[in-house]
Amino acid sequence: MSKLIAKEYKCFEDIKNIRDDGTEFWYARDLALVLDYIKWENFHKVIKRAMIACENSGHNVSCDFPEVRKIVSAGATSKPVIDYELTRYACYLIVQNGDPRKEVIALG
Predict the structure, then answer these.
(1) CA–CA dist 4, 34 (Å, integer)
(2) Chain segment 18-70, per-residue pLDDT in tens
(3) pLDDT computed for residue 5 by the predictor
(4) Which secondary-structure segment (H or E) carries 13?
(5) Which of 18, 33, 72, 90 fits a disulfide with 86 by CB distance 3.0 to 4.6 angstroms?
(6) Distance between CA 52 and CA 61 in Å, rounded?
């Protein structure tokens, strides 16, 4: 495994979350940063393509990409934003549908 691949894999595992029942998930907004996506709008397009691939593979999109809301600070106020609790399979599909010009995606 190259040093970049090892580094990116560690970053991927570092953002993993574990539920009380032991299942793992990744927040899409955290994954976006690991995959060098700065704008949520651009990453959300990749998520939507990955959801299509998920559905076409016979998986249940709502199980692999459950939508959640997070409250984030916006200056003096706070606002809810959309996020997703992604399964490992959903993360795989996102990398497969990402921008191949990004080195981290090409190595994914």
Answers:
(1) 12
(2) 999 999 999 999 999 999 999 999 999 999 999 999 999 999 999 999 999 98
(3) 54
(4) helix 3-14
(5) 90
(6) 8
Structure tokens at 46: 């990749």
CB atoms within 10 A of CB 107: 13
3-class DSSP assignment, residue 67: strand
CA–CA separation, 5 vs 104, rounded Å? 8
Instruction: Report the distance separating Cα 41 and Cα 96, nearest Å.
Output: 18
- Edge-first strand listing for the sheet containing 77-86: 16-18, 24-27, 77-86, 67-74
Would you say the pTM of this structure is higher than 0.70?
yes
Nearest to 28, CA basis, from 83, 80, 76, 89: 83
